Amino acid sequence: MTLLELCEWLYETGPAVLVRESPYGFQILVGVHLLGIVLSVGALMWLDLRLMGLSMTRARVSEMNRSLAPWFLTGFALMFASGLLLFAGFATAAYGNLFFRIKIAVIVFAGLNALYFHFTTGRTRPEWDASPQPPAAVRFAGLSSLVMWTIVILAGRMMSYTMF
Amino acid sequence: MPLLAYEQPFLIDSPSINPMSVFDSLAAWLESTHVAQVVGTSMWVVASLSAVHVVGYALVMGGALVGNLRLLGMIVPSVPVMDVVRPASRGIAWGLVISIVTGVLLVSWKAVAAIGNDIFRIKMLLLLLAALLHFAWQARVARNSGVDGAALKIAGAVGLLLWLGLAVAAAAYILFE
């Protein structure tokens, strides 16, 4: 099964039809999707800025992470659930959209960046947890996350103008 | 013989006594500008402005979220309130600059219709209230070290609710305008 065939199948599933045909389903999902991205990126950016040594440098990185994680993880959950349904509803149009492809590629890289940080760079955290200016590799991880999520927002918004 | 000033009939719709007319004429002027015509004829310009508008909006909401959650005592409790509220306010301020510049341009080519739209009016009213309250009251409460925890919590809760209201109104405007 090719990716396009998968999209065509998804487009015909029950939830996808509901997204397209229920009176306010689409609007509600887009609203939740926007709230989700604001909650996730809005909270995550402060952890990224702390990793970069640019903001709230008196706080320990571990405390920032512990405090902010429930907020950005809730935001991500809302965003992924609503995004998946929206995608199902318009899967074939999204498949051919350049901005959708950019957005998905960058989300994958942002996820890989977070995983890499978690399993390698982040392992040395006790050494720089309280440091106002973490090592270059840590600052770079924060910067990459910030740049990538900004691109995701930009591409996501461009997508909604070019897809229909 | 012409009527004297005090003999003129009192007109409800008279431009001089209708406060909305100031906004109406401002909107009409905005729509007539060259910039508005450029924006209104290019989907790519509208899409790009809208994309940057949402980045500014995320900055505003990110600042509002951490600032108010710290006032409520729900995040980073060991960090002094001002060490969170100061950068959060800076995030809100930068976000507002980006969102307002792109927002004025985005609305420029359909300003008269937007001014007449109830959701747009609610969105602008909430934006004004939330921003005024943040910079005039909440940031001041946070700065005052003598203030007790209850005042901080009330400020944080009110702020969070207002910004959330703005987010809902903003989503509603995109979808139902």
Textual characterization of the structure:
The complex is a heterodimer of chains A (164) and B (177). Chain A is built from 8 helices and no strands. Chain A has one domain. Chain A has helices spanning 3-12, 14-21, 25-51, 61-89, 91-95, 98-119, 125-128, 136-162. With 164 residues, chain A is an all-alpha fold. By secondary structure, chain B is mainly alpha-helical. Chain B is globular, with a radius of gyration of 21 Å. The N and C termini of chain B lie far apart (50 Å). The mean pLDDT of chain B is 87. At the A-B interface, α3, α4 and α8 of A face α3, α4 and α7 of B.
Précis, in short:
The complex is a heterodimer of chains A (164) and B (177). With 164 residues, chain A is an all-alpha fold.
What is the H/E string of chain B?
Answer: HHHHHHH
Q: Unreliable runs of chain A, pLDDT <50, ≥5 residues?
A: none
Give the class of chain B from helix and strand content and strand pairing: mainly alpha
How far is the N terminus from the C terminus of chain B?
Answer: 50 Å
Shape of chain A: elongated
The percentage helix of chain A is over 70%
Alpha carbon gyration radius of chain B: 21 Å
- Integer count of domains of chain A: 1
| Low-confidence sequence ranges of chain B | none
Summarize model confidence as the mean pLDDT of chain B.
Answer: 87
User: Count the helices of chain B. How many?
Assistant: 7
**Biggest interface, chains and residue tallies:** A-B, 33 and 38 residues
Proportion of residues in β-strands of chain A: under 5%
Q: Portion of residues in helices of chain B?
A: over 70%
Query: Beta-strand level of the residues of chain B, as a percent range?
Result: under 5%
CA-atom Rg of chain A in angstroms: 18 Å
Number of helices of chain A: 8
Please give the largest β-sheet of chain A.
Answer: none
What is the averaged pLDDT score of chain A? 94
- What general form of chain B does the structure show? globular
How would you characterize the largest beta sheet of chain B? none
